[in-house]
Give the backbone structure.
Amino acid sequence: MKFHRHVFVCQRDRGAGHPRGCCATKGSGDLLLALKLAARDAGLGRVVRVQESGCLDQCGKGATVVVYPEAVWYGGVTEADVAEIVERHLVGGKPVERLRIPDDELTGKPLPEGVR
């Protein structure tokens, strides 16, 4: 059976002082562990997959977390936000709006014509 939600936590490390910033210097390692433990403690083991990712290309907005299948992007996430993300979004199904990166601020581009 597939996971109900998939949570990716950026672990990109560009090193301190990089002009674009990076998630690793903003505590993403501890954030990843905290999210994994909180999801497990909420009874979401084997229901929600929390895992590390490489660069999510939102470097200036880190630490960055994305939740699928909803494609909700969170920025500036800290360990202090973990309980709220787990309770409200992963359990309750409602994204934490105060942490959400607006779609028009994400660095992706529209699909080229003819691509679906």
Observations:
- The radius of gyration is 14 Å.
- The longest helix spans residues 28-41.
- Residues 45 and 107 are 31 Å apart (CA to CA).
- The chain has a mean pLDDT of 94.
